[in-house]
Amino acid sequence: MADFAAVGEVSDGTAPEPSGADIANLVRAAQRGNVTALRELFERNRRRVMEYCWLAAGRDRERALDLSQETFARTFSALSRLKEPESFRGFLFTVAANVCRTRGAQEARRRALEVLGLDFDVPAQEAADCCAREERIAAVQQVLAHVRDDTLREIVRLKYCDPEHTTRQIAELLAMPHGTVTVKLMRFRAAARRELLRSLASEERR
Fold first, then answer.
1. Closest CA to 137 of 166, 115, 167
2. Domain count along the chain
3. What is the pLDDT of residues 31-81, one digit of tens each?
4. Could you tell me if residue 15 is inside a domain?
5. Within 10 Å of residue 66's Cβ, how many Cβ atoms?
6. Structural domain range at position 47
């Protein structure tokens, strides 16, 4: 198989739009091991895949290049199993959608892990290296969606969402011992980290 590790620059030109028959013939040739056909499939589709990934990555070019590379790598590794060569385009963009969605979920979980790793009384504004403030809040809200304990939900919301509070402020607001607040947060963070790490490990093995 050709080396697609250098997937990157998108040509400023626009390749002629291939017919369905052309694509099917290229797929069949690539399935027989024709490297030239494989490269042609890449060249004819890379611009559209890059554009799709660019939008999915929030117009971040470097992330889009990475997503595009993974899309082609997965598509070509599974090409021998494609029974209908005419459906290549649909298959390619299904792979792209799955790659972008999976990567987005992984990044959200990593952001949540970063948030959960913050010291209790360090305001999130001071942790600029973790991630953008909006992303931190979104990640915490994703974790909170699975919490059934209303008191714990309120503690976590006050600790990590907007406006942010220290554990002592939370204890005063909820009229509970400071030790109770910190213990609940510790248990929440430990359980959430375990779950997030399991999810990340499971997805990265796919």
1. 115
2. 2
3. 999 999 999 999 999 999 999 999 888 888 898 999 999 999 999 999 999
4. no
5. 17
6. 20-106
